[in-house]
Amino acid sequence: MRRLINQHPGRGGAVLLSLLPFILVIAAYVYYSHVRRIENPEDKLLPSPATIAATVHQYAFEEDERTGDRLLWTDTQASLQRLLTALGVSAAVGLMLGLSIGVLPYLRATIAPFVAAVSLIPPLAILPILFIVVGLGEAAKITLIIIGVAPLIVRDLAMRTAELPNEQIIKAQTLGASTWQLVIRVVLPQMWPRLIDALRLSLGSAWLFLIAAEAIASTEGLGYRIFLVRRYLAMDVILPYVAWITLLAFTMDWLLRLVRAKAFGWATPGG
Q1: What is the DSSP string of 90-136?
Q2: Smallest Cα–Cα separation from 80: which of 142, 29, 24, 125?
Q3: Which residues contact 234 (CB under 8 A, 6 or more apart)?
Q4: CA torsion, ordered 28, 30, 35, 40, to nearest 10 deg
Q5: Residue 20: inside a domain, yes or no?
Q6: Domain containing 239: what range?
Q7: Residue 183 DSSP code
Q8: Of 43, 183, 225, 256, whose CB has the highest number of CB atoms within 10 Å?
Q9: What confidence score (pLDDT) does residue 185 get?
């Protein structure tokens, strides 16, 4: 008797199964949109696929009358610049502090409790403080993402560093390695793949903080556009923007996973 736990789909079957939930969601949307428009042709809650396609074409390929920009690409560029800048800074801070806390006992005793406390502060709760102190410009939005993401990366890398087999540290010191050599030659190579994993796990939170900051104080960006048109119940704009954000986040996650597999295959199960 073959147990379900030992049954695995083939490559083609796995692709079909992965697409099935998306197909079901799209089919359900098309059906209920049709039903609602039969009852009310002016319904705005579930616009028809044709209406959504026309709106996407307008925002992606037609110039805005007021600004002359193609709004979807302008908003995407603004949001990605903020997000990638914040993730880059968060990764650098997370790597440096995480390794330092994990390797140096005095630094761990001094900084680890502070980092733990900062990581528990709801970032959105301090957003008004950031706007007051830093202003309403790009710095406040980027800082919000860093505050929300960096402490978690620091804690994750610090814990992973502390979990390294003690035998590795002892052997390196026995061979005459200094603290700096130990960090660079022993610890750092093993933390690169973990840093990528931490970034992947932080993507959802980073997008959340970005959208929140753009919704409150911005003149362009994906979050700004969504909250701008909500007052008009413009679901034909909101739904494509949400889908586009999801696709961007999925693509970023896929690229990080690809980099991890290509650059650090030895850290991938079966690699």
Answers
A1: HHHHHHHHHHHHHH-HHHHHHHHHHHHHHHTS-GGGGHHHHHHHT-S
A2: 142
A3: 44
A4: 130
A5: yes
A6: 74-267
A7: I
A8: 225
A9: 83
Q: What's the burial of 108, exposed, middle or buried (CB within 10 Å: 0-12/13-18/19+)?
A: middle
Q: Does residue 104 belong to any structural domain of this protein?
A: yes
Distance from C-alpha of 38 to C-alpha of 4, rounded to nearest angstrom:
44
* One domain, residues 150 and 86: yes
- DSSP assignment string, 196-217: HHHHHHHHHHHHHHHHHHHHHS
pLDDT of amino acid 1: 57
The answer to whether the CB of 91 falls within 8 A of the CB of 195 is yes
How far apart are alpha carbons 147 and 55 in whole angstroms? 35
**Would residue 51 count as lying in a domain?**
no
Burial class (CB in 10 A: 0-12, 13-18, 19+), 143: buried
In the chain, the amino acid numbered 170 is: I
234 confidence band (pLDDT: 50, 70, 90): confident
